[in-house]
Structures are given as structure tokens and as C-alpha cells.
Amino acid sequence: MKAMILAAGRGERMRPLTDNTPKPLLWAGSKRLIEYLIESLAAAGFIDLVINHAYFGRQIEQALGNGERYGVQIRYSPEGGQGLETGGGIFQAIPLLGKEPFLAVNGDIWTDYPFTRVRRQVPIDLAHLILVDNPPYSPRGDFSLQGERIAAVGANKLTFSGMGVYRPELFAQCRPGRFPLAPLLREAMARGRVTGEYYRGQWRDIGTPARLQHLTHWLQSYK
């Protein structure tokens, strides 16, 4: 299975740190944010990686190269300009990802999720999402996990972690351009075609300088 790291976001909430640096290249402790993900994916056997980029994207290519030093092969999907949003970015990268299900991970999260689990759970339907506890800054959550299925409405909503496995067929009716992923997922959920799981381990969305600082302090104590 191939994996895609979504690294094309502009990181407006992370300013001024992202005024001259793409968010995935910001340092958290001894490593850049994206390096934690690459190393975790490599340890789980994800060798073929695709990384999209837009904002200061060339910096990402220069920093990571072809992935050899991480034990992976990295191919890039440059978007230019303002980027294509999550849906458009994944859709553009599908020729690199191939015809089989693939994992997509937001490039601005930190997690200890065991990606080996994903390799054993190829979705039988259009998508499989990993949900986590609602963080304090987003207490309402995103989706409801009902057994093994995910619904857009329902009680006890959880937060979408930014980690999911998708079949290319989810994007079958899409056209090139800029568009979000959420409407595609909600449509598939309405047809009962999205499965999911609840992960109770460590997960952090690094969306602001304060959260980046908290992660750095936590990593230092974690060691």
C-alpha cells in the first residue's frame, strides 16, 4: 500500500512561523513535523510515499529529497499557487498512488498511531477513517462512529484525525481543480460506504504556534 502525506496547506494560523517556511518543515524538538510521519510510515512498511506541496513547496523537496535517508521513496505532486485543497490534491496525485487503496495523512499532525494496523485493514468500501477524541479547541467533533460505519450525523461525535484509507473510486466523479474532501466523504457516508475506527492513543493537530510549542515540550518529557 502506498501512502500520501498532505503538505500543501498554507498554515495561516501558524504565522509568523510559516511566513517563510512551509508548516510541515517546522521543527518540533529534534525533527521536523513531517519527518516524524515519514519515519513512522517507514517503520510500518510504507516505502512508496507521495507528498503534495504548494506553499514554498520547493523547500520541502530540498529538505526531504528522494527519501533515501529515511528508507523510503518519495515522489512529489506539486500544486503551485494556492494549492488544491485536500480533495483536489489527492485527486491530482492518484496517478502516482495507483489503482489500489492508499493511506493519506495530514502533514501537520503528530501521532503514535500504529500504521501497521492500516496495512491489515484495507477498506472493503470507499473509505476508512481514523477518529480520535475531540480536542479542547473542537469539542463538537466531526463524525459519528456507529459500529464499524461512520455517519455525518449522530450522537457522540469524534474528531477526524486527518488519517484515512481511500479507494480511488471515491474520486471517480471528480474533475481537476481545487475542492475539499469533506463533501465527498459525507456523500459516501450517506450511502453507508465509509468505515472507521476510534483511536485512543496520542494524536495532536499542530495548527498554531502554541500547539507546536506544547508538542516540543511534551516530546522532551516523553523521552
From TrEMBL:
Keyword field: Nucleotidyltransferase, Transferase
Domain Nucleotidyl transferase: 2-119
Highest taxon, organism lineage: Bacteria
GO molecular function term, any single one: mannose-1-phosphate guanylyltransferase (GTP) activity
UniProt cross-references to InterPro entries, sorted A to Z: GlmU-like, MurU, NTP_transferase_dom, Nucleotide-diphossugar_trans
Pfam family for this entry, one: NTP_transferase
CDD domains tied to this protein: NTP_transferase_like_1
EC numbers: 2.7.7.13
Protein name (Swiss-Prot/TrEMBL): Nucleotidyl transferase
Originating organism: Nitrosococcus oceani (strain ATCC 19707 / BCRC 17464 / JCM 30415 / NCIMB 11848 / C-107)
